[in-house]
Amino acid sequence: MITFDALTLNALKNELTDFLEGARISKIQQPTRREFIFLLRNNGKSRQFYVNINPQFYHACFVSKTNYEKRLLEIPKKPPMFCMLLRKYLENSRIAKVNQPDNERILEFYIESYNELGENIYLCLAFEFMGKHSNVILYNYDTNIIIGCAHNVGAEKSREREIYGSLPYVYPPKQQKTDILNYNGEIDYSTLQDDFFMISKSFANLCVGKSLQDIKSFVRLENISPCITKDFKVYSLFAGLLNDEEVIKYNSVNDMIDDYYAHYIGQNKFELLKTNYKTTISHKLKKVTKSLNQMEYKLLTESDSDKYRLSGDLLMANLYQLKDYSEEVSVFDYENNKQITIKLDSLKTIKDNANNFYKLYNKAKSARTKLTELIEDYNSQKSYLEQVLYSINSAVNIGDLLEISDEVVENTPQKKSKTQTSEIMKLSPNEATTIYIGKNNKQNDYIISKLADENDLWFHVHNCAGSHVLLKTQNLTDELILECAKLAKEYSSAKNSSKIGVIYTKRKYIRKPPAANLGYVTYRNEKEIILD
User: Fold this and answer.
1) Contact criterion met (CB below 8 Å) for 417 and 313
2) H or E stretch including 258?
């Protein structure tokens, strides 16, 4: 990933200055601790200026609607303290000047504002893009005193430059480098970024083999042609530094920066969300599996409850032949045709011992019934969680995860959607045939509820989590059935199994039980195909 260097910041500042200078700050928002959005209005237009000071993705640009969604920006109901501070001093103020200090990765907004007494004051909002030291700092331009910053830097973090409210604002220490525009000697490409200002490591790698005059023209920002490689690994202000056949060209530096970082931020948030969802569901699945194993073990211990009934029956059948208050008695077991010995409570009569065995039998019988119900419920929960886990693992973009968020995170507000057909995988082998494949429980439910007719065929792997596959055709053949069975296996947790069964039946034989988990169905009149 390419870092946001001083040269790129310079090009961006030059491109945006006409809009920024004179713009009024209408609204300030802070979605996260390291992200800021400034709604700026100028020349009858409003644009969202996005600033990110995350050590991985630090940059600034005007963000498009599409990339706003890619970044998954959500405005909190209660804004952070620093956001409130910025609103207090900057909202409805005007940006008088935009500046970048020489050779620094700092963008400054000089702002005209008013204090509590209505007096005109001048403030400076400095965006510092310096890796892990990135920050947003508001200070009074007249007094040079810091009013507030995104995160404080104390003596324990930096011995050279402390940053927090009431301290004077100073620039970072000057680097021991040379201005390449005033240099005329030999170039050592291995130390290019260490020898000269405005040249980052990634830019230096692109300049290997270029002449000194070419590098100077790059630093002067001549003939800018912004582009990104198609695999989004590298961006450059100059298409000539990359292979023209493998780049996406842009009309502006801002659009290039916006697209490039939105791609990586969206990718990063997708991976984090996917990991969090997997952890949450795996934890729930582990608890359910543990409880299920305990219930099944307990059911096994209760399985010999009939011995209590038999003991009670044998005692009552021999009531007048046995002696009360005995420790044990020997009776003939007429059910198993053998003589057995029954242990008794010597403090009770034969009849009381028999009643005690009947109580134990009834208790065990009730427990067995309840355990059977609980096991059935836990099995249902386990199947559902396995299906959700499969949906998470098969998600390929952030939209797939957000669609199942209410199944993963409890008390998540559900947004009603008019239709989800556009998101469901749809195949058309020929004009008379359409195959639908659901990616998650919502889509599986939608396929069964909205898309299927009573004579359409439904496919699903047997006893495994997987997609519902629906076949709509006017020309049913064995080859088509086999193809759908293979698709059901392909889009399931048994994808890599050497041998698996796939069941299929008509839609009219499928039923959705009341209050059942999303996507759960029962079926009858099914047939099974074994894929080997």
Assistant:
1) no
2) helix 253-301
Q: What is the pLDDT of residues 388-429, one digit of tens each?
A: 999 999 998 888 898 898 899 875 544 444 334 347 899 998
pLDDT in tens, 488-515: 999 999 998 889 999 999 999 999 988 8
C-alpha triplet 451, 456, 461: angle, nearest 5°:
95
The full set of domain ranges for the chain reads: 6-149, 180-255, 276-415, 416-531
Does the domain at 276-415 match CATH 1.20.58? Answer given as no
> Alpha carbon of 408 to those of 274, 376, 491: distances in Å?
11, 22, 20
In Å, how far from its chain's centre is CA 462? 29
Taking only Cα atoms into account, the Rg of the chain, rounded to an integer number of angstroms, comes to 36
Tokens encoding 192: 């290019």
Contact 465, 386 (CB under 8 A): yes
CA distance 117 to 187: 57
- φ/ψ of residue 144, rounded to 5: 65, 20
CATH number of 6-149: 2.30.310.10
Backbone φ, ψ for residue 308 (5° rounding): -70, -45
Say if pTM beats, i.e. exceeds, 0.85: no
Q: Which amino acid is at 328?
A: E
Token pair, residue 372, equals 């059977």
Tokens read off for 392: 């998470």
